């Protein structure tokens, strides 16, 4: 029976901490202990003992036993191979537990990473026709042998650079704080939005990576949980304006951390290949900036804080999200009291007014959505400001939506109008919460039925007000994230039946 292992130094306790988790570096973990009974002789085989027979664990199994997943006694040949008449081969280099094998594998990966770095940078900089031909080979996933044959047949700067990349040379400089792990897909990566890394984050200096993550966020998350006016945010970020009320390092790092959940880019992970570290590097920087800001109720702080609440939920820290919602309920009225009633510039005044509308409704949607998950009635009042994008100008506006970072053509959508419909839906959602989690306990059966039917009627009236091409049961239904979200939260078949049952 296997014994329970003691907690390692530097390892977190069994109960995960509520705050941002910083994974310990690999160097902080102790070296694995020597297995008792493991043979360390140069021959690598067990020696006989005429006085006492001690059962020993084989430090490595032969390839046949590994394939068949059978216990190997490490003889030459082993019992299994002897009985079955198979060739018995031991290959210590395939044992991933050995330091030498791990080091060799790490060296191979480092060399491959450096080679890819140099090839990709050379392809980006070279205008030669052969670079375009090589790119076509890569795009159609040609085998390595075909690529090498092409390089041999087309001598030139790209071919020479590629051959030099195959030698153990150091990676090019300027990789930033995170070691560059470029993917072939970066050659054709064309983010929807282009924004700089500086002066917004210290996690990376890579403008392309930051543009990639911001684009992923805006395309796949932004109109689910709409926290800010994307136009004002992008303009301030592109200008590097640290004094702007619409962008801040805290908000940017919160956006980048959430954007990592919609990307498979190698640098979306704090630790390469560790799914649990997705977006953690940006989350930790945002958490540090939040601490330095002393939780001040500024516009960008509240906007970024709502994103951090969802990031905590995405990583399984529901208690943190629940506690943070309580803090958000305190901060939101403080922020609204700072709302300017007038301004010298009408354009700025209108932008600020709309930004306050957006963030108040975002807080309401977050609170309502989490309340449904936590099975609790709403604890904060409904928004005091009108839902954003209510005017005809916004309801008629078409905006190109792209599935980036996935491949696909842009689609013209009334994104602001769709979000306005979402806000109206969440008014009913909070009423449903109040009814189910608070009022139902005080009602008799008839009162429950009447209350449910009344909400059902209101919700169906709302659903019929939504354009037909955004109704899931219509033949011309437009299948994009925002319309799917509307359909998911709507029950056209009858709310009263669902609630009373």
From TrEMBL:
GO terms for biological process: DNA-templated transcription. Residues 1-28 are annotated as: Disordered. One of its GO terms (molecular function) is DNA binding. Keywords: DNA-binding, Metal-binding, Nucleus, Transcription, Transcription regulation. CDD domains: fungal_TF_MHR, GAL4. Residues 16-28 have a biased composition (Low complexity). Residues 61-90 form the Zn(2)-C6 fungal-type domain. Pfam families: Fungal_trans (PF04082), Zn_clus (PF00172). InterPro entries: Notoamide_regulator, XnlR_reg_dom, Zn2-C6_fun-type_DNA-bd_sf, Zn2Cys6_DnaBD. SMART domains: GAL4 (SM00066). It comes from the Eukaryota. Transmembrane segments: none annotated. This is Zn(2)-C6 fungal-type domain-containing protein. It comes from Cladophialophora immunda.
């Amino acid at each position: 029976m296997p014994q329970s292992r003691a907690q390692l130094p530097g390892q977190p306790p069994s109960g995960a901490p509520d705050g941002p988790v910083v994974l310990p570096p690999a160097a902080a973990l102790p070296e694995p202990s020597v297995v008792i009974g493991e043979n360390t002789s140069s021959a690598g085989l067990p020696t006989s003992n005429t006085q006492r027979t001690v059962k020993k664990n084989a430090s490595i199994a032969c390839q046949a036993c590994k394939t068949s997943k059978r216990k190997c006694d490490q003889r030459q040949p082993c019992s299994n191979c002897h009985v079955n008449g198979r060739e018995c081969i031991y290959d210590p280099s395939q044992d991933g537990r050995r330091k030498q094998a791990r080091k060799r594998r790490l060296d191979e990966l480092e060399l491959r990473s450096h080679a890819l770095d140099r090839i990709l940078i050379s392809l980006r900089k070279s205008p030669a026709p052969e670079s375009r031909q090589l790119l076509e080979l890569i795009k159609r996933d040609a085998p390595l042998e075909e690529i090498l044959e092409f390089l041999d047949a087309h001598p030139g700067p790209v071919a020479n650079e590629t051959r030099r990349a195959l030698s153990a040379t150091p990676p090019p400089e300027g990789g930033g704080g995170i070691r560059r792990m470029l993917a072939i897909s970066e050659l054709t990566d064309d983010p929807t939005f282009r924004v700089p890394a500086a002066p917004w984050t210290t996690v990376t200096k890579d403008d392309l990576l930051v543009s990639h993550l911001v684009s992923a966020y805006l395309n796949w998350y932004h109109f689910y949980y709409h926290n800010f006016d994307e136009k004002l945010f992008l303009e301030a970020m592109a200008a590097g304006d640290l004094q702007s009320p619409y962008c801040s390092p805290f908000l940017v790092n919160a956006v980048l951390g959430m954007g990592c959940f919609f990307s498979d880019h190698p640098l979306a992970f704090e630790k390469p290949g560790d799914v649990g570290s997705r977006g953690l590097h940006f989350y930790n920087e945002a958490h540090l900036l939040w601490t330095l800001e002393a939780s001040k109720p500024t516009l960008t702080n509240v906007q970024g804080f709502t994103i951090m609440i969802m990031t905590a939920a995405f990583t399984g820290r529901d208690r943190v999200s629940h506690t943070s919602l309580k803090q958000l309920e305190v901060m939101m009225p403080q922020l609204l009291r700072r709302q300017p009633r007038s301004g010298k510039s009408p354009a700025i005044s209108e932008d600020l007014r709309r930004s306050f509308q957006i963030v108040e409704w975002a807080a309401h949607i977050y609170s309502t959505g989490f309340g449904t998950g936590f099975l609790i009635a709403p604890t904060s009042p409904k928004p005091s400001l009108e839902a954003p994008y209510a005017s005809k100008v916004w309801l008629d506006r078409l905006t190109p939506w792209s599935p980036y970072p996935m491949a696909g053509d842009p689609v013209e959508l009334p994104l602001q109008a769709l979000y306005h419909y979402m806000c109206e839906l969440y008014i009913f959602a909070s009423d449903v919460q109040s009814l189910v989690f608070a009022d139902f306990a005080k009602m008799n059966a008839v009162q429950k039925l009447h209350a449910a039917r009344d909400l059902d009627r209101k919700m169906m009236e709302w659903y019929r007000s939504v354009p037909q091409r955004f109704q899931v049961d219509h033949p011309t239904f437009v299948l994009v994230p925002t319309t799917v979200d509307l359909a998911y939260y709507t029950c056209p078949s009858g709310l009263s039946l669902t609630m009373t049952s």
